[in-house]
Amino acid sequence: MAAAVSPTSLESAPRIMRLVAECSRSRARAGELRLPHGPVATPVFMPVGTQATMKGITAEQLDALGCRICLGNTYHLGLRPGPELIQKAHGLHGFMNWPHNLLTDSGGFQMVSLVSLSEVTEEGVRFRSPYDGDETLLSPEKSVEIQNALGSDIIMQLDDVVSSTVTGPRVEEAMYRSIRWLDRCIAAHRRPDKQNLFAIIQGGLDADLRATCLEEMTKRDVPGFAIGGLSGGESKGQFWRMVALSTSRLPKDKPRYLMGVGYATDLVVCVALGCDMFDCVFPTRTARFGSALVPTGNLQLKKKQYEKDFLPIDSDCACPTCQKHSRAFLHALLHSDNTAALHHLTVHNIAYQLQLMSAMRASIVEKRFPDFVRDFMGTMYGDPTLCPTWATEALASVGITLS
Amino acid sequence: MEMKLNLTKVVNGCRLGKIKSLGKTGDHTMDIPACLLYTKTGCAPHLTHQTLHTIHGLPAMAQLTLSSLAEHHEVLAEYKEGIGKFIGMPESLLYCSLHDPVSPCPAGYVTNKVLQKSTIIGVIEGGDVMEERLRSARETAKRPVGGFLLDGFQGNPATLETRLYLLSSVTAELPEDKPRLICGVSRPDEVLECIERGVDLFESFFPYQVTERGCALTFSFDYQPNPEETLLQQNGTQEEIKYVAHTKKIKTTSYNQEMTSFEINLKEKKYQEDFDPLVRGCSCYCCKNHTRAYIHHLLVTNELLAGVLLMMHNFEHYFGFFHSIREALKSDRLAQLKELIRRQAS
């Protein structure tokens, strides 16, 4: 068992976040991450490229959209093509030829998403491969080892993840185990100078457990913290309260990464609550179902109503799809078997997400974030007062009123 | 403004030339022999405008298929600004074929449709019957058409010689100064055979088919390489042919049966750790940025990017082949190119 890290080592943790501006009302911050593969402006949305590819979008297209950090997944890449091959290819950056930053998840989430194929013990998570039935043990040490081989700029601890709908002693067990696994990850990490290991706060929907986890993990010498175990099936009311609790106890000078959040409203509210980084499969996944994201929600372009709609998806959008194509053409293409239809929408949806973050950041820097939030909610819901209750409450808790 | 074909030279039946006065404003030209850009529902397969335009040597003319667009004709009527603008190719020259060469109807069931402000291409039919073929050619040649579509010459390799003989007879009946387009023929070796029999324009669906089976075109069209390259290529080519011949023996019922010796199958395990580009020296986006190992990974994990990258490479490689045909004709070296392709055909 690794020795516990002493509280006094707080000072030596690398400071990768520089705060540029803070909202005087809410907890929103604008900042800049200094990472090995270049700077990243925050708040930031990180698209998910699970298997070393952004689903049909080339690295050049992703770069042109302004993306400077995206995700890969340790569980998937650990199986195919495997860390040895990726190491031979000069790391994940070399393998997929991505010049900017990468963040890899530890494989923890797969414990929930693939729960029928996994078994958790103190040692680690035992997975049965869906491809060949082989068993693999993903321990904190193994996860860090794989991530060291991948060479991503930010690596995540292996955490004991339970679904947010689970109650009872399992939640507490998972929280304490996550702390122990954090220490094991820190001890196993071979490249702290090249790769930033983030801790992941657990504790489910229990305020006391969360608070305990926060208190313990913030004693550890890590460059950043993630808020995990949320964005599952929990109610939005519980969700925002756990986020707010977490940001109130996390250090100001380190990045806060809220995992699995990607709906536009959630992003705006959670930026107000003090989060800096987000990831979610939603925008890229929904694109492949023919859904285009717009400030008023989304357009289900396969529907007949778009058959003769000659406007672009969003007249104010500067993405290549909106510059060249109409909803009507995309509708026609979506009804063919040409995969280009999906790629057009993926490009647009990533552009939408990045544009949203960029607009939020500008409003924080220019000291008009609360107005931005009101405008956003007005556009999305028709009137700021028609915003969902949970969002109104969450915003009110940090001093932003919508009426 | 009627389009006009000016022949620069004719060598052993092969025509080198320029089609002039193309397009709405009549100021586009197109070199022949050439291929057309294959599209599905008005869009290159797998490719957005952005990724399409990273390809070097894009054909001046794209092929649309009526079969994929017919269901949208009401939309187009209401759109009023023409198919080119609708599909996001307002500047491109467009050819509309009745059928998609990848999923065609049987030949002979073609009926002409009247398209306003477009040049009409006359279709030569007649099946395998010489008399009918000649009759079709002579009668169609009398009409004021802009060019000729040679239909029904596609088929399996066994009947190729017969069909090629028919083809010669047909093109002999056609006026020299109008372009001849053939449908359903896209393989490199068959393209050259047809060029020798007076054909000018081809469809580019072959690189698409190669892409769909997870393969990459690797055949050489460098008919005058330097001596070191020749040696390297010969060694490479021989190795590929040996391996392909071997797999063909065991996998008689798999999809790989359709695979030609002009390509490699990136799904094969041997590419798992191959960090070379698909083709050394290729200037396409895929070869400049990615490795065989990466493409292999994308195919094994069923990722969409595999199709995108392979399509980019396969189109560029194929367009490069057509460029080399024109260059070879210019410098009277077509025989060398033909021999090179023949050596690589299985």
In the CATH hierarchy, what is the superfamily of the domain at 4-102 and 118-213 and 315-345 in chain B?
Answer: Queuine tRNA-ribosyltransferase-like
Output the strand order for the largest sheet of chain A.
4-14-13-12-11-10-6-5
Helix/sheet category of chain A: alpha/beta
Q: Which architecture name of the domain at 4-102 and 118-213 and 315-345 in chain B does CATH use?
A: Alpha-Beta Barrel
Largest sheet of chain B: 4 strands, parallel
- Rg measurement of chain A, Å: 21 Å
Tally of discrete structural domains of chain A:
2
How much of the sequence lies in strands of chain B comes to 15-25%
Structural account:
- The complex is a heterodimer of chains A (403) and B (346).
- By secondary structure, chain A is an alpha/beta fold.
- Chain A has two domains: 15-278, Alpha-Beta Barrel (TIM Barrel); 285-366, no CATH class.
- Helix content of chain A is 40%, strand content 18%.
- Chain A has helices at residues 59-64, 74-79, 83-88, 91-96, 108-113, 140-150, 169-188, 207-217, 236-249, 264-272, 282-287, 320-324, 327-334, 340-365, 369-381, 389-397, and strands at 17-22, 29-35, 38-42, 44-47, 69-73, 101-105, 118-120, 125-128, 135-138, 154-156, 196-201, 224-227, 256-258, 277-280, 291-294, 297-300.
- In chain A, strand 7 and strand 8 form a beta hairpin.
- Chain B has a domain at 4-102 and 118-213 and 315-345: Queuine tRNA-ribosyltransferase-like (TIM Barrel), CATH 3.20.20.105.
- In chain B, strands 6-5-4-10 form a four-stranded parallel sheet. In chain B, strands 1-2-3 form a three-stranded antiparallel sheet.
- In chain B, helix 1 (49-52) links the parallel strand 4 (34-38) and strand 5 (61-65).
- In chain B, helix 12 (305-330) runs antiparallel to helix 13.
- Chains A and B meet through helix 1, helix 12, helix 13 and helix 14 of A and helix 1, helix 3, helix 11 and helix 12 of B.
- Chain A: Heterodimer of a catalytic subunit QTRT1 and an accessory subunit QTRT2.
- Chain A: It is a peripheral membrane protein.
